[in-house]
Write a structure and sequence with these properties.
mainly alpha; 2 domains; about 0% strand
Amino acid sequence: MRGAWLTGRFGEENQLHLIKVVTMFDLFGSKEKKENKRLNAVIAAKDKAISGLRSVSENLRARVWSHGMTDAEKLFIEECRDIFKNGKMISERKFKLRVSEINKMREDMK
């Protein structure tokens, strides 16, 4: 009967004994500790990358805020160029509308 599976109560007891023996080899959780250490290193690397990306995005936001133009500003400048080229005037209402759009987009960027 070599190699045959044990059945019944005797087989269940042997399976439980086998489980106890297997768990004794990693009694202090060294495998789990190694895995946790590895995962913590991966998390730390990703946190560092996220922190770097966050600082880049903050720098870009600050640069756009100080030097860049929003879409409303680009549209306003294009209208001003057309006015200059064609010698036309812009109404006060249209001017205030464009400036309010610019201010609204700038506020949304904060």
